[in-house]
Amino acid sequence: MRETFIATTTALLDEDPRTALVLADISADAFGPALRRHPDRALNVGIREQLMVGVAGGLALTGMRPYLHSYAPFLIDRAYEQIKLDLGHQDTGAVLVSIGGSYDAAGAGYTHQSPGDVALLDTLDGWTVQVPGHRDEVPAMLRAAARHDDRVYLRLVEQENSRAYPDAGKLRVLKRGGPLVLAVGPMLDPVLAATRDMDVTVAYTNTPRPLDTEGLRLLTEAEVVVVEPYLAGTSARLVSEALNGLPHRSLHLGVGRAEVRNYGTWRDHARVHGLDEAGLRRSLQDFLGTGA
Amino acid sequence: MTVTTLRRLTGDQKHAPSAHSTLDVIRVLYERVLRITPETADDPDRDRFLLSKGHGPAAYYAVLADRGFIPDGWLDRMGEWHSRLGTHPDRVLIPGVEAGTGSLGHGLGLAVGVALGLRAQGYAQTRTFVLLGDAELDEGSNHEAIAYAAAIQLPLTAIVIDNQSATHGWPGGIPARFPGWSVSMVDGHDHDEIEHGLQVRSGRPHLVVAAVETKG
To answer: Organism's domain of life (chain B) (predicted)?
Structure first.
């Protein structure tokens, strides 16, 4: 996904003089050709993430369309107040593109992990959050974001589904059956594997913000399970609002709040958080009953 | 021997230059300066060392193993599942590590707090050291700590490994970014020079700039 992002954003810089890129050292080598070709609007400010967002806010105030990029904890957690004030409070926008997600950098430890990025953005108004499940979903997201001035966050991770669904901005039903299981981004394949012999409906989205609440309400009968690749329960408020007045039970699966002080790979961390096939199957059976 | 021990460490090739650039300074700290041993690692009056440049911990781990803080056997599994050694150090998992670091720009602020806490509790002889990279100085949080430490004449020692890796460099030199601090400029591989710089107690914050070969 990272390579797709770099290729598409480099092309956007070549095609549209309104496009700007602001880096804080991360991926600067990969963006080397773009930085050399467009030194006036492809910028590397150094290891200064708060400045990266401030500069982007300034560029946006002049009518440019800035793309920002770093590891999720540095881009979102660290620069949160700049995101809140230098973009939101100025009523401007930018395209924030992160890598690393909740635990891609498993060997690096908690300093390089951001399970709470989407929850942080949920405290702010007007953010579109996109969580592609496949690299081929990424270019269209980046190109669509170039055509307006709103605030967009793309969360790129290593884990990918086996196939792309570029038209999954709204909930896309991939399996029809009983209770709804909503998979966000790269959670789709493990959800499909875990539910292969269960009587459930599986829907997929790569755009959890704004959440397709209308689709959620249409598909939910009495039970809904949301599986997200970031903090468990991040979407609970929106799901509750969408189903207001409809008697239902809900289960929210995702990354736990407790820090996993261990290393290994993202697959190890997915297992610990119950987001692998076996863990999801256990949680779904506990919630829905073994007859599901 | 630390150099041999360092070679055992695998799985962090990306940060290998960072690890090697810090090796001599950390060796001198632990072999000649810091009043700390595995037996005194929890004593409240022990000297403190914080590796703010947490992305190059291989040298740190090698020294900790050589000094007996951690078993040699831990070194072979850095970054693996159920290893205590990540590619950034975690104080909760590793004996002798004072702060979990890896995100740049946190160690100096923590060190100011440590020095203040020690002073508030009457540990007048206890010293606090923090090691940063020159590129890490990009982070604005460092400059808040630099100014505050100078304003309150806080006697801690910051070591900056200068391998000229800051994206936009430091015109005027790194010491110009530390107004109000005393300064030692040393060869980052010369143990006697490093020790001399680390032994300075000026009654205010002290900066040791340890120059090593240029990164890359």
So the answer is: Bacteria
Preceding amide of B38 cis, omega within 30:
no
Of A111, A261, A262, Cβ closest to residue B103: A111
pTM: 0.92
Decide whether A2-155 matches A172-288 in CATH topology. yes
With CA atoms as reference, report the closest residue to A157 among A5, A273, A49: A5
* Four-way CATH pick for A172-288: 3.40.50.1240, 3.40.50.620, 3.40.50.920, 3.20.20.70: 3.40.50.920
Cβ contact (<8 Å) for A108 and B140?
no
- Confidence at B6, pLDDT banded by 50, 70, 90: low
Residue type, A34: A
What angle is formed at CA B111 by the lines to CA A99 and CA B43, rounded to 5 degrees? 115
Collapse the DSSP code of A121 into the 3-class scheme (helix H, G, I; strand E, B; otherwise coil) and give the result.
helix
DSSP secondary structure string, B79-103?
TSTT-S--SS--TTTSTT------S
Rg (CA), chain A: 19
- A46/B contact by beta carbon, under 8 A: yes
| pLDDT in the model for residue B55 | 87
Q: What pLDDT is attached to residue A292?
A: 57
HSE toward the beta carbon, residue A90, CA cutoff 13 A:
23
